[in-house]
């Protein structure tokens, strides 16, 4: 059993008890799932601002998917030995309608935690397949690397779902390279073997 304790140091004696408790709870929620050991944290306004930002990002996810605000960029891979363009890696950015770009460093860890990442990964895969189909007459043997979350490793239909996306666009699975981070792979060795 592990214990997470949120602490609020009272600096305003006129503050209502409920407000104090809410601040302690905010800090406690911020700790949950971060460690397998008991821990504590002291409330700070930065934590509150971070949680409010996370809530805003979470609340905007469904509309962002629907409105295609997640943009896939392609970082070229160049083979120096063969002196030729060899493929690309798909990278996602969240571009708001006002032009603001939200860094993946802000939304990917949050989406990993709340499992929105699964839906986002399939969205990205769909976008990548569309682009491969569009480029295939110019680059017939293009290999695109796509990062996928470790959350998929426990889904027995994962490969089938990826295959279905490729088939729906008439794209060969040999055009796609799936990348999973090393740490994620080590955490799921039982699934990979």
Largest sheet: 5 strands, mixed
Q: Give the number of helices.
A: 7
**Roughly how many Å is the radius of gyration?**
21 Å
Cα separation of the termini: 30 Å
How much helical structure, as a percent, in the residues?
A: 40-55%
Order of helices and strands: EHEHEEEHHEHEHH
In one word, what is the shape?
elongated
Structural class: alpha/beta
Structure summary, number of beta strands: 7
Mean pLDDT across the residues is 85
Please report which band the strand proportion falls in: under 5%, 5-15%, 15-25%, 25-35%, 35-45% or over 45%. Answer: 15-25%
Uncertain stretches of 5 or more adjacent residues: none
Short summary:
This protein is an alpha/beta fold. 47% of the residues lie in helices and 21% in strands.
Throw out a few tags for this protein.
193 residues, alpha/beta, two-stranded parallel sheet, 7 helices
């Amino acid at each position: 059993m592990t214990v997470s304790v949120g602490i609020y140091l009272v600096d305003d004696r006129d503050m209502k008890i409920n407000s104090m408790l809410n601040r302690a709870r905010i800090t406690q929620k911020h700790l949950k799932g971060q460690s397998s050991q008991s821990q504590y944290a002291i409330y700070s306004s930065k934590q509150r601002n971070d949680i409010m930002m996370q809530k805003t990002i979470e609340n905007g996810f469904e509309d962002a998917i629907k409105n295609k605000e997640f943009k896939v960029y392609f970082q070229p891979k160049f083979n120096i030995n063969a002196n030729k363009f060899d493929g690309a890696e798909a990278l996602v950015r969240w571009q708001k309608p006002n032009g603001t770009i939200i860094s993946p460093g802000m939304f990917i860890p949050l989406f990993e935690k709340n499992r929105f990442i699964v839906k986002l990964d399939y969205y990205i895969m769909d976008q990548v397949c569309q682009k491969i189909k569009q480029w295939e007459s110019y680059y017939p043997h293009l290999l695109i690397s796509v990062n996928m979350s470790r959350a998929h490793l426990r889904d027995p239909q994962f490969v089938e779902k990826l295959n279905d996306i490729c088939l729906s666009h008439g794209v060969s699975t040999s055009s796609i390279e799936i990348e999973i981070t090393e740490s994620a792979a080590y955490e799921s060795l039982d699934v990979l073997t």
